[in-house]
Each structure stands twice: as structure tokens, then as C-alpha cells.
Design goal:
Elements (H helix, E strand, L loop, with lengths): L1 E3 L5 E11 L6 E8 L1 H24 L1 E7 L7 E2 L1 H7 L10 H8 L5 H12 L4 E9 L5 E12 L5 E10 L1 H56 L5 H30 L6 E3 L1 H18 L3 E6 L6 E3 L1 H18 L9 E8 L5 E6 L7 H6 L15 H11 L4 E5 L5 E7 L3 H8 L1
Parallel strand pairs: 10-12
Antiparallel strand pairs: 1-2, 2-3, 4-5, 4-8, 6-7, 7-8, 9-11, 12-13, 13-15, 14-15
Helix pairs in contact: 5-6, 5-10, 7-8, 8-10
The protein binds adenosine-5'-diphosphate.
Length: 421
């Protein structure tokens, strides 16, 4: 009841009154217990419970406590029941047994493995899995649980949280599908451009072969034929056939490596490995390879073989571009650095002839080449690889003479976090 003090202030109290037996006139004893602190504590508890409930609703996260020894009633938070679409009374013991019925077959193995962990000395369950509810809806759950044990090691309680991550998964799936569609599209358009160029490119050596073959026939029929002419025409036929073969070989390589296998790649290590591959070619042309690597770069998430293909292409081009340069200038500088936005940039710089303005425009078109033995596919393929990795490839003039080819790759999110710590 409410009571009022002499000074007029009101407080909550418990009042107990008893009659004293066997006395006349009757006497009574009263106890007044000020319960203000208990009321305050009750109020605080109620408030924090309703805040917790709201937080669980907002985060779509539920929690539970299962008392295996049945010493106390089990607890399932309202949000947990909402996520699983059940009433608290329906939950069987332990909760994992109930969930086991609903686990998607594709996730069963990892779910069972996590359950074994819960029973093992690790006492912990941490698993993300999909469940299919009785009404057919699917939910993705991130489920974390622990077992507490008594001194003899007997399990006492399962305590856990279940986070409904279906929305996040749906967004991730959508983003992945979009990325795949984009990659597929850019690949298709590159392939389309290539197919158009390919017809033209293969046609050229085939026309040349036909012309040389006709010339051969004429030479052979001629009464005063010169074998040297015939041999020269045959040599040309051979060279043209090889050229057509080279175009097809490079296209085939590109198509073969289409499936991208991504893994964390340390760009500085990649350049080091690549130096071994490119060294022979460089030495043959009296070119020095120098590497200027920024230390402690975050890794990128990429296909290392494809990245090597890109850098190797750029190094080959740089070496070709310096074939006329004085030997003292023949150096290719490979450098890495992290850009302020977090991307990793790799630069291949040479002191060659640089790029003529008319070449600069068509450089990345498939089959554009200024070299007699070139295929014109190197840069087109490199750019489509870099784009598929979420990066850009471009060129700038080098200081003094020559060209610099740059490309960027996004750093793996994981390494960015650890670098920031
Ligand atoms: P290819 O090397 O077979 O010609 P690419 O696609 O790799 O095919 O290169 C296309 C063209 O771009 C080359 O023929 C050349 O004219 C030009 N190029 C590429 N890299 C350089 C460079 N480092 N310096 C000058 N020109 C270059």
C-alpha cells in the first residue's frame, strides 16, 4: 500500500497487523516495511527486460537457456520463438534436437560437426546454417551456444543465441548474382569483340597463304623456274600458318583459364615469383628488371595465375618497346603501392618508344598491334582479367621516355581490417 510520512511524502510499504491474543482491552501490533528499494529494483528489471526484448527484435536475435538437469524452467526469448515460428511450450529438449529436424540437407554435415563440438571439451557451438521450417520457409541462422558443467563434468545448461541472418544472406546472394552477371556480360562483350576481330585476323594469313600457294603453282609451271623463289614462297606460307596458329593458341588459353579461382594473393610475392619467369626473356634482350615494392601491403583476393598473366604481358610489351633503346636505358621497373582508397596499384614502367597518339586510342582493342609478329591480344585479355577482379588498367607516359601501365586491385576486406587495427 501507499503510506504517507509525517512530512507529507508518500512511499510504498507493506503493512502487517496482528491482534495480541488474550489481552483486554484488545491490542494490536503493526509492522510497516518500506519497500521503495525493492519497487525500484523491480522497475529497473522490467525496464531492462523490455529494452532487451526491443534490442532482440531490432537485431532479429533470440536467446535461450536450457536446464538439462531440469532444476529450473527453460527460457526461450520471445524473439527466438518468433524466428523459429513456435511457441515457447513447443520447444523440445535440447533445442538442437528440434533444429536438427529442420536443417537443410546441404548444411547437415556442418551442423552435426558443430553439435559434436558442443559435446566435446570445447563446449562451444558456432555455426551458420539454413533451416527449412514446417511451412516451407527457409531461414539462415547464425547459432552460437555453450554448455556449462558441474564439477564432475556433467552438463548443466545449454546457453545460446540464434541470429536470423536471412536478410543479410539475401543481400549477399543478390550482390553475388549481380557481380556474376556483370562479369559474364563483360566477358561476353570481350568475346564478341574478339570473335569479330578473329575473323579478320585469321583471314589475313589465310589470304596470304592462298596468294603464296598460287605463286608457287605459277613458279612450278614456269619453264625457267627458280627454286629459291619457290622456297621463299613456302617459307612465307609456313610463317603465315604459324601466325594464325598463335592467334588461336592465345584465344584458347584465355578461354581455358576462364574459371577464376580466387585466393588471397600477396602482390609483392607475386612480382618476386614473376621475376624468375621473366628474367630469361629480359636477359635475352639486355633488359634489367627492377622491383620497388611497398612493404606490408594488404593482400588482394584474386586468381594468382591470371594476375601473373597480366604482369607478364605488360613486362613482355615493355621489353619489346625497348628493343631500339640504348642499352643503358633498358630497364623495366615493377612497383607496388597502396592507394589512399585502399586499392593496390601495380605499375610496369619502361623507357621505350612510348605510345604514339594513334596507337594509344586502339591499344586495348583485340588484335590491335604495331608489331610484325604481334597478336594484339595481350592488352585486351589483360584488361578483361583486371576488370573481372574489380580493378582498372590504364597507361600514362613515363617520366623522360617510355610508357607506364598501371592496374589496380581491391584489397581483401579481411586484410584491410587487420591493417587498421
Ligand atoms: P601485342 O603485344 O601482341 O602487339 P598487345 O595487346 O599486348 O599486343 O599490345 C598492343 C599494342 O600496344 C602493341 O602492339 C604496341 O603497339 C602497344 N604497346 C603495348 N605496350 C606498350 C609499351 N610498353 N610501349 C609502347 N607501346 C606499347
Amino acid at each position: 500500500m501507499q503510506a504517507r510520512r509525517k512530512d507529507g511524502s508518500v512511499f510504498a510499504c507493506e503493512l502487517a497487523v496482528g491482534k495480541v491474543q488474550g489481552v483486554e482491552p484488545p491490542r494490536f501490533i503493526g509492522f510497516i516495511h518500506d519497500i521503495t528499494p525493492r519497487k525500484l529494483a523491480d522497475e529497473r528489471l522490467r525496464r531492462s527486460e523490455s529494452e532487451l526484448r526491443l534490442a532482440q527484435e531490432l537485431a532479429n536475435l533470440g536467446n535461450y537457456v536450457v536446464h538439462l538437469d531440469q532444476s529450473e524452467p527453460d527460457y526461450y526469448s520471445p524473439q527466438l520463438c518468433r524466428i523459429l515460428g513456435i511457441g515457447a511450450a513447443e520447444v523440445a529438449l535440447p533445442l538442437t534436437a528440434l533444429l536438427e529436424r529442420w536443417v537443410h540437407p546441404g548444411d547437415r554435415e556442418k551442423f552435426d560437426e558443430a553439435c559434436r563440438e558442443l559435446e566435446s571439451p570445447a563446449n562451444a557451438f558456432d555455426c551458420e546454417y539454413c533451416i527449412v521450417l514446417e511451412d516451407g520457409t527457409t531461414r539462415y541462422l547464425h547459432h552460437i551456444a555453450q554448455v556449462t558443467r558441474d564439477a564432475q563434468g556433467n552438463p548443466l545448461k545449454h546457453i545460446g543465441t540464434i541470429h536470423d541472418v536471412s536478410d543479410r544472406r539475401a543481400t549477399e546472394d543478390e550482390a553475388r548474382q549481380l557481380q556474376e552477371r556483370l562479369t559474364h556480360f563483360s566477358r561476353l562483350s570481350t568475346m564478341g569483340e574478339m570473335a569479330a576481330g578473329l575473323a579478320h585476323e585469321i583471314n589475313q594469313p589465310l589470304t596470304a597463304i592462298a596468294t603464296y600457294a598460287q605463286a608457287c603453282q605459277r613458279f612450278m609451271r614456269s619453264p625457267n623456274r627458280d627454286d629459291a623463289d619457290v622456297l621463299e614462297a613456302l617459307a612465307q606460307i609456313n610463317a603465315q600458318a604459324l601466325r594464325a596458329g598463335e592467334v588461336i593458341r592465345r584465344l584458347r588459353n584465355f578461354v581455358k583459364n576462364r574459371e577464376v579461382k580466387r585466393e588471397p594473393v600477396d602482390c609483392n610475392r607475386l612480382l618476386d615469383d614473376l621475376r624468375t619467369l621473366a628474367e630469361t626473356d629480359a636477359r635475352l634482350h639486355n633488359v634489367r628488371l627492377r622491383i620497388d615494392a611497398e612493404p606490408a601491403l594488404p593482400t588482394v583476393y584474386a586468381d594468382p595465375i591470371q594476375l601473373q598473366q597480366v604482369v607478364l604481358n605488360l613486362v613482355r610489351n615493355a621489353i619489346d618497346a625497348m628493343s631500339e633503346a640504348p642499352e643503358t636505358r633498358r630497364e623495366v621497373l615493377l612497383s607496388t603501392r597502396q592507394l589512399p582508397e585502399g586499392e593496390i596499384e601495380i605499375i610496369v614502367a619502361d623507357h621505350g618508344s612510348g605510345l604514339a597518339p594513334e596507337a594509344a586510342e586502339h591499344l586495348f582493342n583485340p588484335f590491335f598491334t604495331t608489331k610484325s609478329g604481334g597478336t594484339g591480344l595481350g592488352l585486351a585479355i589483360s584488361r578483361s582479367i583486371v576488370r573481372a577482379h574489380g580493378g582498372r588498367l590504364w597507361h600514362t607516359p613515363n617520366e623522360g621516355t617510355g610508357a607506364r601501365f598501371h592496374f589496380t586491385l581491391p584489397a581483401s576486406p579481411m586484410t584491410l581490417v587487420s591493417k587498421g587495427e
